């Protein structure tokens, strides 16, 4: 029998997705569960809600708090942090690379490195050369990987993920789906795992 | 030396404030800290952010999730829950009663009973007779208490709390202030207590 599986929906622009990406792998191993990694885009979903920017920019008082909270939480989790100059960043290219390589063992390192570069090294992940550098550091060939990720077939895979997220009632990131039930936010990861284990 | 103190900012209309009100007293006793109870109104603060209603109504997908999340969390905390017919409810009168009686031993029971009536008994706490019933059940004289709470002096106290909340950068409820530092959400209560204890 296969291990119980939790779907982890993440967006590369999302600060709280970084927190989860930084701890979900070791937590899943400890708990004996599998993670299905589901990159998607929040932009179209925020648009559905009438928002043309991150809520942390639209509501500056909340945004100011979020950065303070993220500083405290990254420290708690032992993750590097430095407030980026650009927020939110366009995670489209990173998401396409991820979705095209979900079967590769290096993809989880790529995901976490991309978040770290974005949220602790003041680099912009919409920049191809930044992504190339990460791929190179993982011993991969950036040109091949990036060109494959820009195929129409692969672009459609990401569109389908975003459409699926919308249908699941996802409105933010990170989100977790267990047996069709939605949990939102890094704060609910433990609850989602508990729910999964109680139903396995 | 007095015990370390955490300020608990709450709004009677707020679902997640109910979660905190339902567990903060026993947690504070266990942790050896004092709670400063700070009722305030979110309405004026939401208006500052350009919102004329609860974000859970303005963003219905998020709202739908919130009720599911609240159902799960109240179960986890052992609190009664039944989705109210009216949301958000006007907590003005309840907040005035609270602020006028913060030195009374029965006030914490009044706060929690008001939340329970609102979020598990389908009653409307903007209704004076509902509040009277709660006060009576606590052995108090509703007429005296309600008329005192409607004095100009007491109305001003609540206005001052709301103004103070705004100055502290509070944008939602529940919020916690420790040494001037803001923690937002029932999920951050443990972090706020840890922060307080590390600085005491």
TrEMBL record, chains A, B:
InterPro entries: DSBA-like_thioredoxin_dom, GST_Kappa/NadH, HCCAis_GSTk, NahD-like, Thioredoxin-like_sf. The keyword Metal-binding does not apply. Residues 5-191 form the DSBA-like thioredoxin domain. Its EC number is 5.99.1.4. One of its GO terms (biological process) is naphthalene catabolic process. GO terms for molecular function: 2-hydroxychromene-2-carboxylate isomerase activity; glutathione peroxidase activity; glutathione transferase activity. This is 2-hydroxychromene-2-carboxylate isomerase. It comes from Leptospira hartskeerlii.
């Amino acid at each position: 029998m296969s291990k119980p599986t939790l779907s982890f929906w993440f967006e590369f622009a999302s600060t709280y997705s970084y927190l989860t990406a930084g701890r979900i792998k070791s937590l899943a191993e400890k708990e004996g569960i599998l993670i299905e990694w589901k990159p998607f885009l929040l932009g179209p979903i925020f648009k559905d809600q009438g928002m043309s920017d991150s809520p942390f920019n639209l509501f500056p008082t909340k945004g100011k708090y979020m950065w303070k909270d993220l500083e405290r939480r990254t420290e708690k989790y032992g993750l590097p942090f430095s407030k980026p100059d650009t927020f939110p960043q366009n995670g489209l290219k990173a998401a396409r690379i991820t979705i095209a390589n979900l079967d590769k063992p290096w993809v989880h390192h790529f995901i976490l490195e991309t978040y770290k570069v974005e949220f602790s090294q003041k680099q912009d992940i919409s920049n191809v050369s930044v992504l190339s550098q990460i791929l190179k550091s993982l011993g991969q060939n950036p040109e091949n990987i990036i060109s494959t990720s820009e195929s129409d077939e692969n672009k459609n895979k990401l569109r389908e993920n975003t459409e699926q997220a919308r249908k699941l009632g996802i409105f933010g990131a990170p989100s977790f789906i267990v047996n069709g039930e939605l949990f939102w936010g890094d704060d609910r990861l433990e609850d989602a795992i508990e729910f999964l284990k109680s139903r396995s």
